[in-house]
Amino acid sequence: MADLSQIVKAYDVRGVVPDQWDESLAELFGAAFAQVTGASAIVVGHDMRPSSPGLSSAFARGAAARGVDVTEIGLCSTDQLYFASGQLGLPGAMFTASHNPAQYNGIKLCRAGAAPVGQDTGLAEIRTLVEGWADGGAPEAAGSAGAVTRRDVLADYATHLRSLVDLSKSRPLKVVVDAGNGMGGHTVPTVFDGLPIDLVPMYFELDGTFPNHEANPLDPKNLVDLQAKVRETGADIGLAFDGDADRCFAVDERGEPVSPSAITALVAARELAKHPGGTVIHNLITSWSVPEVVKEHGGKPVRTRVGHSFIKEEMARTGAIFGGEHSAHYYFRDFWNADTGMLAALHVLAALGGQDGPLSELVRQYDRYAASGEINSTVADQADRAAAVKAAYEGTDGAELDELDGLTVTTADWWFNLRASNTEPLLRLNVEARDAATVARVRDEVLAIVRA
Question: I need a surface site. Which of 226, 315, 332, 447 has the fewest CB within 10 A?
Fold first, then answer.
C-alpha cells in the first residue's frame, strides 16, 4: 500500500510534482472523491501552474470513470471554484498550491455548496482509498462513464460578487492590483469591468513559474513592487492577491500595508449594516479592534482557533454573516460561508469610494492598537518551550491564560498568543498592546524564554 501521509494534509492535498504525486495519482483521487461524496456530478477547476491542466484533467477522468458527470470550468481562482460549487450545487475540486513555489501543486476539495472537505469530513477516507488503489488502479465501476463538459463561469462569478456590494455611488478610484502572475490576473479584469475604477495592472500575465516574485503577499518582500507603484502613480489603494487569488491584501495611498484585522473590522461593520445583530467570527490572533467594532455596530463577536475549517464550522454552527482571519482570509454567509478575497476587496473599495478621505484615514478607526506581527522561532522541543512560557505567566497579577489554540495570555493592556506550527519545528508569537513600547517589552520577554 502506498503512503500518502506527506501530501494529504489536514485540509487539502499538496506536494511536489512529479516527485510526490502525478497525473496517475490525480486520476485515483478523482475516483476516490466520486466514491466518498456519492455525487452524480462534480465541478473541477485549476490555476495557472504548468502541471495544473494535466492534473485537473486526470482527476476528471478518474471521476467520470466512476459514472460521475464532470463540469470543467478551466482556469479559475479558488473562490471562483467555490462559487461554482455553490451556484451549481455540486462538490468541487480546485487544483492549486496557492502561494507555494512552482514545483508544487495540490487539490482543495469541497462538498456541494462549498462545504469544506478535511481529514474529518472525507479527506482521510479519500486518502485510504487512493493508497489502496495505488498499485492496481481503481476497481471498475458498474454502469457507463460520466460525461465531461466545459463551462465558463467567470462572468457569472463576477456578476454575483458585484450584486453583493454597491459601488454605484463610489467616486472614481485609481487602483493598483498586483496579481503576482496568479489567478487575480484572470479574475480582476472581469470583476472590475464597468466599475468606477482606473485599474493599474501589475503582473497579470498568468505564469505559474512566478517570474517576478512569489505570489504570497503575507511576506512583506512581495509587497515592495506594489508599494512603489502606488506611490509612483498616486493611486488611492493597492491590492495584492496570492497565487489562487482567494486572499487579498491592501496597501494605502502612502504604500503602507493595511492590517488584515483592520480590513476584517471594516468589512464586519459593513456586513452588520446589511444584517443587523449578526454574528461575526474572528480567530484569536486578530486584533482587539475586531470584537470592539463588531459590538459597537450591534453584532456578536465569536472567537475561534486559527484555520479555515474552524472558521467555516463556526460560521455554519452560529449562522454568522462574516468571518475574518489575520492571514487575510475573509468568509461570507452570502458566499456559501466560503472565503473570497475579491469580495472583501470590493467592500474596501466601496467604503473608500463612498467618502472623500484617503484610505489611511478611513482605516484608522479600525486599527487601534500596536502589534508585533507574527514572529517565528525554530525550537528543538515546541511543547517544552511553550510549557516554560506558560509557567512564567501563570499567577501573573491580572493575567488570564487560555489554551483554545496554543497559549494566549491576556491583560488589560496587552495580549500574546504562542502557537506551535503543525508542519515545522516552529513556535509562532503574536503580541498586541496599547502602545508600541509595551509590544516590544512583552515580545522580548516571551522570546527570551522561547529561545533560551
Answer: 447
> What's the 3-state SS for 26-45?
HHHHHHHHHHHHCCCEEEEE
C-alpha–C-alpha distance, residues 261 and 301, integer Å:
13
Task: For the chain, state the CA radius of gyration.
Answer: 22
| First vs last C-alpha separation in the chain | 43
pLDDT in tens, 366-399: 999 999 999 999 999 999 999 999 999 998 999 9
Read off the pLDDT of residues 75-112 as tens digits, 9 standing for 90 and up. Answer: 999 999 999 999 999 999 999 999 899 999 999 999 99
The question of whether 98 is a catalytic residue gets the answer yes
Q: Catalytic residue, from 98, 170, 259, 287: name it.
A: 98
Distance, CA of 7 to CA of 16 (rounded, Å): 8
Alpha helices in 65-183 (DSSP H): 78-88, 123-133, 154-164
**Structural domains of the chain, with CATH:** 13-153 (3.40.120.10), 174-256 (3.40.120.10), 260-364 (3.40.120.10), 370-450 (3.30.310.50)
pLDDT tens-place string over residues 214-246: 999 999 999 999 999 999 999 999 999 999 999
154/81 Cα distance (integer angstroms): 10
Q: What is the pTM of this model?
A: 0.95
